[in-house]
Amino acid sequence: MVEELGGVRVFVADTGVADEGDAVQLIATAHYEHQAEWVALPAAELGDEFFELRTGRAGAIVQKFVNYRMGLVVVGDISDKLAASKPLRDWVRESNRGRSLWFVGELSELAERLLPTGPAGR
Is the overall model pTM greater than 0.85, yes or no? Predict the structure, then answer.
């Protein structure tokens, strides 16, 4: 499904992303079929390994989004994962300061960030 959030086309995915190949397929779908600038993906669709930074899975998947200049938004409550890992907390905090990867609790937070007057300050 595609939503206009803050004037930006966001492809809201409901499919799992297990590896880099899945990420590239999702990026292609979002870009070519939906003309989206961002992909919003439920945290549950990334699997637990994504949030265990030592596996390298998160870095590999996020790198594909960066390479293809497609924003990725992880949507959902990940507070339990953050409580269990300082490196993950640090990574999420730094990611939320950037322009490629964001973590939000729900889509309404994303809409706020994408507004021209929002924290992202397009």
Answer: yes
Cα separation, 95 vs 102, whole angstroms: 6
CA dihedral (25, 15, 106, 6) in degrees, to 10, reads: 40
Owner of token pair 């300050």 = 121
Residues in contact with 21: Cβ distance below 8 Å, sequence separation at least 6, in sequence order: none
Q: How far is CA 73 from CA 48, 51, 103, 118, in A?
A: 16, 14, 6, 16
Residues 13-34 have pLDDT tens digits of: 999 999 999 999 999 999 999 9
Q: What tens digit of pLDDT does each residue of 29-62 get?
A: 999 999 999 999 999 999 999 999 999 999 999 9
As a whole number of angstroms, the distance between CA 71 and CA 65 comes to 6
Say what angle helices 20-28 and 57-67 make with each other, to 10 degrees. 30
Nearest to 113 by CA among 3, 7, 1: 7
